[in-house]
Structures are given as structure tokens and as C-alpha cells.
Amino acid sequence: MKNEATWRETKYVKRGGRLRASTDLREVVMGSRLCGDCIARLYEEYLPRYARGATADLGCGKVPLYGAYRPHVSSVTCVDWGNTPFQTTHLDFECDLNGALPLEDASFDTLILSDVLEHIARPEPLWAEMARILRPGGVAFVNTPFFYWVHGAPYDYYRYTEFAHRRFAELAGFEVLVLERIGGLVEVACDVFAKSASAVPVVGNPVAALAQSAVGLWSRSSTGRKVAHWTGRKFPLGYFMVARRLPVPQQS
Question: What pTM was estimated for this model as a whole?
Fold first, then answer.
């Protein structure tokens, strides 16, 4: 990772000892704080369990998860295309993730693909490239939105179900270790409300912040988790996956 010493927190920040979505409106729009918090909790839980070794952050943008995974890995390589709106000085490789990646075979232990797959016009070749550059036993962290507004236009192409995620992984030679729904009906409703409310002048942002704070507390409660578990089957805010690269079968 270039210019590591100049990296700073952007989309995700450590607050109160926990990884959270930033409250800086230049980094996270008001209506997306709840979604960001939900995603942050999952990375905070699973990065210490599975992240290790040489790591590539694909579609890295401003490398918002760097502070979360850096303590667990040995090196970081940042990859993104030149058309990204998130200007960064940390890129090691500039390339289109729809094509071949300029990275060596079996050269990484961990891949990060956060809020990226929905922007890839040709997802199957990217999964094949991920399998190529991962060492057997290496893991890929992937999260995508589902019931979520259009973003990154005009490069917002798809919304994937949990079944699509599992299919992509297994066809590319991965074993799915973790596949969790992000939120449920309450979180989806709050996300839509907050994004709509924040467009109202003067009072919109405070109302959106209050609604997301209340639902955030609900989501962390025992009842909230149960409701999200059941309603997320039909109305997930998004998905989070950890998949392990299986050994390549030996030809007889």
C-alpha cells in the first residue's frame, strides 16, 4: 500500500472502541449511517477470525477498512480503477476489475471486496481472477447491498441474492464459511426513510440521524436481531460473505 503513513479514517471509524460508520457527511451521507454501522459490525466480528497474511483490497477507493484489517495481516496491496470518484494516493495497481488483474497467481491470503461487486459488469471473470490470485486456504471478504438505493451511477449494475453469492463462490472454487444477511425489514424501512428525510431542508438530517440511532439500538437488541433474522430472509438490506479458496484438484 502506497503512502501508508498518510492513511486516515474515512467511511469507517473507531468510536467508543467499536468500528462504526463515520459521522462526517463528506464520507457517509446522512441516510447511509445505519447501513454503514451494520456492515462495520460484521467486519469487526469476522476480520480477526479470518484475515491474515498478504492482503489485496480490490476496488479499494479510500481504503476505508484498512484500520480494521491491518492489525491482522502482513501486507496490503490496493487495487482500483482510474474512474473511481474516490481519489486516493494509496493505489498500488490501477486496473479495471472487469478484466485480468495485474497480480501474480496464488500471491494473496486475504481479499477484500467491499461494496464493489454490484459495480462489476462481468462478475464471473472477477471471481475467477480472485480464485487465481488467492492461495489455497485463502479467504475473500465480500459484502453487497440488496434493498438499497442506486449509487455510483452509472456503474451500479446488479443486486445479488444470497443464492447468487453462494453460486458465484462455489463455481469459482470457494467454500462459503460465512453468509449473513445484513439487517431485515426494519432496517430496510429505516434506510429508505432516512434517505428520504435527509433530503428535507433544515430538519431532515436531524430526523434521519434520530431514526437511524433508534433503529441501530433496536438492531443490537436480542429482539431486534431475531426480527432481522426472520424478516431478512425476504427483505435484507444486504449480504456479507466470507469464502475460502479450496485447493485446486490434482489431475491424475
Answer: 0.95
